[in-house]
């Protein structure tokens, strides 16, 4: 799969109008997830002898609200991702079918119909199942990485002393090995 197919896929559905909603719902999910973890860490006493800062009922209620909010964000993200994937898939399928129908007769004389059907079905299968979930997985992993970096910068900023050189070495290694 070429990298040029991803921008085509993203803009095929509603000219990419659903992408900001998908990304925003993922960011909101990540914020709520971090908020839930922070709420639990803040409200839990460090030792058994100490009292909790607030009542356990309020802690549970806040955690439930954060969990419901996270679930709604995941639902919105999944619905819009599936909608965008379906619309993009249908548009790309229609475009492919139009190209096949407008092909010259010499194309059908030299290419067996089984090969055309096999290629069309395998390409459509990739568009239907592979591309949207790869793109979604990439976007969600990048957003999660940014969330982790933000939390780490607040909790243990000293990690960046090690992280920055490691990232530079990884990028250098990847660039030097892809050239060969």
TrEMBL record:
Listed transmembrane segments: 12-32, 58-80, 131-151, 157-175
InterPro entries reported for this sequence: ABC1_TM_dom, ABC1_TM_sf, ABC_transporter_C-like
List, alphabetically, the PROSITE patterns matched: ABC_TM1F (PS50929)
Domain named ABC transmembrane type-1 is located at 21-180
Keyword annotations for this protein?
ATP-binding, Membrane, Nucleotide-binding, Transmembrane, Transmembrane helix, Transport
Q: Which SUPFAM superfamilies match?
A: ABC transporter transmembrane region
Q: Which GO terms describe its cellular component?
A: membrane
Could you state a single Gene Ontology molecular function term? Answer: ABC-type transporter activity
> What is the protein named?
ABC transmembrane type-1 domain-containing protein
The organism named in the record is: Taxus chinensis (Chinese yew)
């Amino acid at each position: 799969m070429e990298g040029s197919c991803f921008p085509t896929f993203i803009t095929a559905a509603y000219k990419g109008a659903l992408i900001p909603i998908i990304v925003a719902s993922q960011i909101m999910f990540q914020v709520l997830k971090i908020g839930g973890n922070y709420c639990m860490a803040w409200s839990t006493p460090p030792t058994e002898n100490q009292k909790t800062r607030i009542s356990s009922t309020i802690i549970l209620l806040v955690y439930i609200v954060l969990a419901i909010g996270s679930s709604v964000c995941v639902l919105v993200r999944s619905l819009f991702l599936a909608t965008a994937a379906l619309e993009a898939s249908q548009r790309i399928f229609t475009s492919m079918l139009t190209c096949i129908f407008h092909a010259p007769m010499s194309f059908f004389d030299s290419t067996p119909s089984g090969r055309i059907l096999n290629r069309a079905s395998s390409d459509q299968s990739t568009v239907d199942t592979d591309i949207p979930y790869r793109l979604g997985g990439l976007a969600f992993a990048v957003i999660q990485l940014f969330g982790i970096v933000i939390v780490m910068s607040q909790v243990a900023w000293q990690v960046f002393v090690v992280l920055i050189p490691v990232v530079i070495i990884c990028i250098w290694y990847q660039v030097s090995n892809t050239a060969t």
